[in-house]
Amino acid sequence: MKPRAYTKGVMRRVARRRMTDEALSSNLDAPRRAAVHLQHSIVRGDLVPGEKVKQNDWAKRLGISGVPLREALNMLTAQDVLQHVPRRGYFVMSMTKQQILQIYRLRIFIETEMVRDIRWPSEEEVAEMEAQYEVFHEELAAGHLERAHDLYRDLYFARAELSRLDLFAREARRLFSQTVPYRMANFVNALRSEAGIETIRRKDAAMLEAFRARDVDDLVSAVYGTLHSTMVTLEQLDDDEIFGKPRRRRRTLAAVK
Questions:
Q1: Domain span at residue 127?
Q2: Structural domains counted in the chain
Q3: What angle, rounded to 10 degrees, do the helices at 216-236 and 180-190 form?
Q4: Are residues 221 and 135 in the same domain?
Q5: What is the pLDDT of residues 104-137, one digit of tens each?
Q6: What are the pLDDT digits (tens) for 156-170?
Protein backbone atom coordinates (compact mmCIF):
# COMPACT_ATOMS: atom_id res chain seq x y z
CA MET A 1 0.00 0.00 0.00
CA LYS A 2 1.43 3.38 -1.02
CA PRO A 3 1.43 6.12 1.65
CA ARG A 4 -1.25 8.62 0.58
CA ALA A 5 0.95 11.69 1.03
CA TYR A 6 3.63 10.33 -1.29
CA THR A 7 1.14 9.24 -3.94
CA LYS A 8 -0.54 12.65 -3.87
CA GLY A 9 2.85 14.34 -4.17
CA VAL A 10 3.66 12.31 -7.28
CA MET A 11 0.26 13.02 -8.79
CA ARG A 12 0.67 16.75 -8.25
CA ARG A 13 4.00 16.67 -10.09
CA VAL A 14 2.50 14.62 -12.90
CA ALA A 15 -0.41 17.04 -13.20
CA ARG A 16 2.13 19.80 -13.73
CA ARG A 17 3.77 17.73 -16.47
CA ARG A 18 0.45 17.57 -18.30
CA MET A 19 0.62 21.28 -18.93
CA THR A 20 1.95 22.59 -22.24
CA ASP A 21 5.67 22.98 -22.80
CA GLU A 22 5.26 26.74 -22.36
CA ALA A 23 3.52 26.43 -19.01
CA LEU A 24 5.80 23.66 -17.82
CA SER A 25 8.92 25.71 -18.38
CA SER A 26 7.55 29.18 -17.61
CA ASN A 27 9.48 29.36 -14.34
CA LEU A 28 12.80 28.53 -16.05
CA ASP A 29 15.24 31.01 -17.50
CA ALA A 30 15.36 31.33 -21.29
CA PRO A 31 18.28 28.93 -21.93
CA ARG A 32 16.79 26.17 -19.81
CA ARG A 33 13.36 26.73 -21.30
CA ALA A 34 14.86 26.43 -24.79
CA ALA A 35 16.70 23.25 -23.76
CA VAL A 36 13.40 21.70 -22.59
CA HIS A 37 11.73 22.53 -25.91
CA LEU A 38 14.63 21.12 -27.93
CA GLN A 39 14.73 17.90 -25.93
CA HIS A 40 11.00 17.41 -26.34
CA SER A 41 11.38 17.99 -30.08
CA ILE A 42 13.93 15.16 -30.16
CA VAL A 43 11.59 12.93 -28.15
CA ARG A 44 8.72 13.66 -30.57
CA GLY A 45 10.91 13.02 -33.58
CA ASP A 46 10.65 16.58 -34.88
CA LEU A 47 14.44 16.65 -34.64
CA VAL A 48 16.03 13.36 -35.65
CA PRO A 49 19.57 12.00 -35.19
CA GLY A 50 22.03 13.77 -37.46
CA GLU A 51 19.71 16.70 -38.16
CA LYS A 52 21.08 20.23 -37.88
CA VAL A 53 19.47 22.57 -35.36
CA LYS A 54 18.73 25.68 -37.42
CA GLN A 55 19.45 28.42 -34.93
CA ASN A 56 17.58 31.27 -36.66
CA ASP A 57 14.45 29.14 -37.04
CA TRP A 58 14.54 27.96 -33.44
CA ALA A 59 15.19 31.44 -32.04
CA LYS A 60 12.08 32.70 -33.87
CA ARG A 61 10.05 29.66 -32.86
CA LEU A 62 10.92 30.10 -29.18
CA GLY A 63 10.80 33.90 -29.22
CA ILE A 64 14.30 34.35 -27.85
CA SER A 65 17.56 35.86 -29.08
CA GLY A 66 20.55 33.89 -30.30
CA VAL A 67 22.47 34.20 -27.03
CA PRO A 68 20.14 32.16 -24.76
CA LEU A 69 19.55 29.71 -27.59
CA ARG A 70 23.29 29.06 -27.89
CA GLU A 71 23.45 28.59 -24.11
CA ALA A 72 20.72 25.94 -24.45
CA LEU A 73 22.60 24.28 -27.30
CA ASN A 74 25.78 24.21 -25.23
CA MET A 75 23.87 22.66 -22.29
CA LEU A 76 22.58 19.87 -24.51
CA THR A 77 26.02 19.41 -26.07
CA ALA A 78 27.50 18.96 -22.58
CA GLN A 79 24.88 16.23 -21.99
CA ASP A 80 25.82 14.54 -25.30
CA VAL A 81 22.31 15.11 -26.64
CA LEU A 82 23.71 17.40 -29.36
CA GLN A 83 27.06 17.51 -31.13
CA HIS A 84 28.83 20.76 -32.03
CA VAL A 85 30.79 20.79 -35.28
CA PRO A 86 32.99 23.93 -35.60
CA ARG A 87 31.93 26.27 -38.42
CA ARG A 88 28.96 24.01 -39.19
CA GLY A 89 26.71 24.23 -36.16
CA TYR A 90 24.86 21.95 -33.77
CA PHE A 91 23.45 18.55 -34.71
CA VAL A 92 21.35 15.96 -32.90
CA MET A 93 23.74 13.26 -31.73
CA SER A 94 23.88 10.55 -34.36
CA MET A 95 25.23 7.03 -34.14
CA THR A 96 25.26 3.91 -36.23
CA LYS A 97 23.16 0.96 -35.13
CA GLN A 98 26.33 -0.82 -34.07
CA GLN A 99 27.36 2.14 -31.91
CA ILE A 100 23.92 2.23 -30.26
CA LEU A 101 24.20 -1.46 -29.40
CA GLN A 102 27.70 -0.87 -28.01
CA ILE A 103 26.31 1.85 -25.75
CA TYR A 104 23.69 -0.53 -24.43
CA ARG A 105 26.39 -3.12 -23.76
CA LEU A 106 28.34 -0.46 -21.87
CA ARG A 107 25.21 0.51 -19.95
CA ILE A 108 24.63 -3.11 -18.95
CA PHE A 109 28.15 -3.34 -17.53
CA ILE A 110 28.07 0.06 -15.78
CA GLU A 111 24.54 -0.05 -14.42
CA THR A 112 24.65 -3.59 -13.08
CA GLU A 113 27.81 -2.62 -11.20
CA MET A 114 26.28 0.71 -10.15
CA VAL A 115 23.38 -0.94 -8.30
CA ARG A 116 25.61 -3.40 -6.44
CA ASP A 117 26.56 -0.62 -4.04
CA ILE A 118 23.54 1.54 -3.28
CA ARG A 119 21.70 3.18 -0.43
CA TRP A 120 18.49 1.20 -0.17
CA PRO A 121 15.45 3.48 -0.47
CA SER A 122 12.96 3.68 2.38
CA GLU A 123 9.47 2.17 2.10
CA GLU A 124 8.11 5.65 1.41
CA GLU A 125 10.64 6.20 -1.38
CA VAL A 126 9.79 2.85 -2.97
CA ALA A 127 6.11 3.77 -2.75
CA GLU A 128 6.82 7.03 -4.53
CA MET A 129 8.75 5.17 -7.25
CA GLU A 130 5.80 2.82 -7.69
CA ALA A 131 3.40 5.74 -8.09
CA GLN A 132 5.71 7.34 -10.66
CA TYR A 133 6.01 4.09 -12.60
CA GLU A 134 2.21 3.76 -12.67
CA VAL A 135 1.83 7.20 -14.19
CA PHE A 136 4.70 6.54 -16.60
CA HIS A 137 2.89 3.45 -17.86
CA GLU A 138 -0.36 5.41 -18.24
CA GLU A 139 1.32 8.19 -20.19
CA LEU A 140 3.21 5.74 -22.40
CA ALA A 141 0.08 3.69 -23.13
CA ALA A 142 -1.71 6.93 -24.11
CA GLY A 143 1.10 7.79 -26.55
CA HIS A 144 2.26 10.85 -24.59
CA LEU A 145 5.94 10.36 -25.36
CA GLU A 146 7.22 13.64 -23.91
CA ARG A 147 5.53 13.09 -20.55
CA ALA A 148 6.51 9.43 -20.49
CA HIS A 149 10.11 10.33 -21.32
CA ASP A 150 10.31 12.94 -18.54
CA LEU A 151 8.94 10.52 -15.95
CA TYR A 152 11.23 7.71 -17.09
CA ARG A 153 14.25 10.04 -17.02
CA ASP A 154 13.38 11.22 -13.49
CA LEU A 155 13.03 7.63 -12.28
CA TYR A 156 16.32 6.68 -13.91
CA PHE A 157 18.24 9.61 -12.45
CA ALA A 158 16.74 8.96 -9.00
CA ARG A 159 17.96 5.36 -9.21
CA ALA A 160 21.44 6.53 -10.20
CA GLU A 161 21.50 8.91 -7.22
CA LEU A 162 21.10 5.94 -4.89
CA SER A 163 24.45 4.50 -5.97
CA ARG A 164 27.54 5.14 -3.87
CA LEU A 165 29.65 4.69 -7.01
CA ASP A 166 29.45 8.30 -8.12
CA LEU A 167 31.69 7.94 -11.19
CA PHE A 168 29.66 4.98 -12.42
CA ALA A 169 26.45 6.93 -11.86
CA ARG A 170 27.76 9.98 -13.72
CA GLU A 171 28.78 7.89 -16.72
CA ALA A 172 25.45 6.06 -16.66
CA ARG A 173 23.57 9.37 -16.83
CA ARG A 174 25.74 10.51 -19.75
CA LEU A 175 25.10 7.35 -21.75
CA PHE A 176 21.39 7.53 -20.92
CA SER A 177 21.21 11.05 -22.39
CA GLN A 178 22.97 9.93 -25.58
CA THR A 179 20.34 7.31 -26.35
CA VAL A 180 17.14 9.40 -26.05
CA PRO A 181 16.07 9.23 -29.73
CA TYR A 182 16.71 5.49 -29.91
CA ARG A 183 14.91 4.80 -26.63
CA MET A 184 11.87 6.49 -28.16
CA ALA A 185 12.00 3.99 -31.04
CA ASN A 186 11.76 1.23 -28.43
CA PHE A 187 8.81 2.94 -26.71
CA VAL A 188 6.95 3.42 -30.00
CA ASN A 189 7.54 -0.23 -30.86
CA ALA A 190 6.01 -1.20 -27.49
CA LEU A 191 2.88 0.84 -28.33
CA ARG A 192 2.10 -1.40 -31.28
CA SER A 193 0.61 -4.05 -29.01
CA GLU A 194 -0.69 -4.48 -25.49
CA ALA A 195 1.95 -7.17 -25.02
CA GLY A 196 4.67 -4.56 -25.59
CA ILE A 197 3.34 -2.30 -22.84
CA GLU A 198 2.82 -5.29 -20.55
CA THR A 199 6.48 -6.31 -21.02
CA ILE A 200 7.61 -2.88 -19.84
CA ARG A 201 5.23 -3.04 -16.85
CA ARG A 202 6.52 -6.47 -15.91
CA LYS A 203 10.18 -5.43 -16.02
CA ASP A 204 9.49 -2.28 -13.98
CA ALA A 205 7.58 -4.38 -11.43
CA ALA A 206 10.63 -6.64 -11.07
CA MET A 207 12.77 -3.56 -10.38
CA LEU A 208 10.37 -2.33 -7.70
CA GLU A 209 10.13 -5.74 -6.06
CA ALA A 210 13.93 -5.95 -5.84
CA PHE A 211 14.05 -2.54 -4.15
CA ARG A 212 11.26 -3.54 -1.80
CA ALA A 213 13.02 -6.81 -0.86
CA ARG A 214 16.45 -5.10 -0.76
CA ASP A 215 17.83 -7.97 -2.83
CA VAL A 216 20.98 -6.98 -4.72
CA ASP A 217 20.99 -10.04 -6.99
CA ASP A 218 17.37 -9.46 -8.03
CA LEU A 219 18.06 -5.77 -8.62
CA VAL A 220 21.06 -6.55 -10.83
CA SER A 221 18.91 -9.08 -12.71
CA ALA A 222 16.12 -6.51 -13.19
CA VAL A 223 18.51 -3.85 -14.49
CA TYR A 224 20.12 -6.34 -16.84
CA GLY A 225 16.74 -7.57 -18.07
CA THR A 226 15.47 -4.08 -18.87
CA LEU A 227 18.59 -3.03 -20.79
CA HIS A 228 19.05 -6.34 -22.60
CA SER A 229 15.41 -6.33 -23.70
CA THR A 230 15.79 -2.84 -25.17
CA MET A 231 19.00 -3.87 -26.93
CA VAL A 232 17.32 -6.91 -28.48
CA THR A 233 14.38 -4.78 -29.66
CA LEU A 234 16.72 -2.25 -31.30
CA GLU A 235 18.60 -5.09 -33.00
CA GLN A 236 15.33 -6.29 -34.53
CA LEU A 237 14.03 -2.90 -35.71
CA ASP A 238 14.91 -1.86 -39.24
CA ASP A 239 16.96 1.27 -39.88
CA ASP A 240 13.95 3.36 -40.93
CA GLU A 241 12.24 2.69 -37.60
CA ILE A 242 15.34 3.80 -35.69
CA PHE A 243 16.86 6.52 -37.86
CA GLY A 244 14.24 7.60 -40.39
CA LYS A 245 11.93 10.59 -40.40
CA PRO A 246 9.20 9.81 -37.87
CA ARG A 247 6.37 8.86 -40.26
CA ARG A 248 5.92 5.44 -38.67
CA ARG A 249 6.14 6.93 -35.20
CA ARG A 250 3.35 9.39 -35.98
CA ARG A 251 1.16 6.67 -37.49
CA THR A 252 1.61 4.54 -34.37
CA LEU A 253 0.82 7.44 -32.03
CA ALA A 254 -2.22 8.41 -34.11
CA ALA A 255 -3.53 4.84 -33.80
CA VAL A 256 -3.07 4.96 -30.01
CA LYS A 257 -4.89 8.28 -29.70
A1: 97-256
A2: 2
A3: 80
A4: yes
A5: 999 999 999 999 999 999 999 999 999 999 999 9
A6: 999 999 999 999 999
